[in-house]
Amino acid sequence: MSKHGMVKAVGTHFEYEDGIIFYPFGTTIYAFAHQTSEIIEHTFESLSGSPFNKVRMCVFPKDYTYNKNEPEFYPFHKTGSGCWDVDSPDERFWNHLEGIIKHLDNMEIQCDLILFHPYDRWGFSQFSQEDNLKYLQKSSGTG
Q1: pLDDT tens string 34-77
Q2: CA separation for the pair 55, 25 (Å, rounded)
Q3: pTM reported for the whole predicted model
Q4: Which end of the chain has fewer surrounding CB within 10 Å, N or C?
Q5: Burial readout 43-80 (b: 16 or more C-beta within 10 A, e: otherwise)
Q6: Residue 105, exposed/middle/buried by CB under 10 A (0-12, 13-18, 19+)?
Q7: What is the CATH number of the domain that holds 84?
Q8: In which element (H, E) is residue 113 found?
Q9: Is residue 11 in some structural domain?
Q10: Alpha carbon of 74 to those of 86, 91, 98, 122, 135: distances in Å?
Q11: What are the beta bridge partners of residue 21?
């Protein structure tokens, strides 16, 4: 955790738990958790020399012009019929994501997680409401 603690909203501004005001200055690394280890390390190096103290990234992989790669692993395993099984999380992914967030935190960089997005070719945006709620429990650490 940051040496100042968690960031929270206080009135009309953000501050750390220790009362220091947090002025967010961020960038996006949307598909960061789904990149190769080389790209992840290079991005950490780039961020360490930048003024950014906040990044925004997605939990699910994102499909767009400069990001067509298949992730090494996904948030959930598939069933025998090829559907995502939200009752079977792939802990390799979740441990990987948690490691990234901890690394960013050690760099004093806050991480905004985008939990849902429509830039999807894998079917995550087509989850049922029930599956979305199970996913939210997993992603928030309550399930």
Answers
A1: 999 999 999 999 999 999 999 999 999 999 888 888 999 999 99
A2: 8
A3: 0.92
A4: N
A5: ebeebeeeebbbbebbbbbbeeeeeeeebebbbbeeee
A6: middle
A7: 3.20.20.80
A8: strand 110-114
A9: no
A10: 11, 9, 14, 10, 13
A11: 15
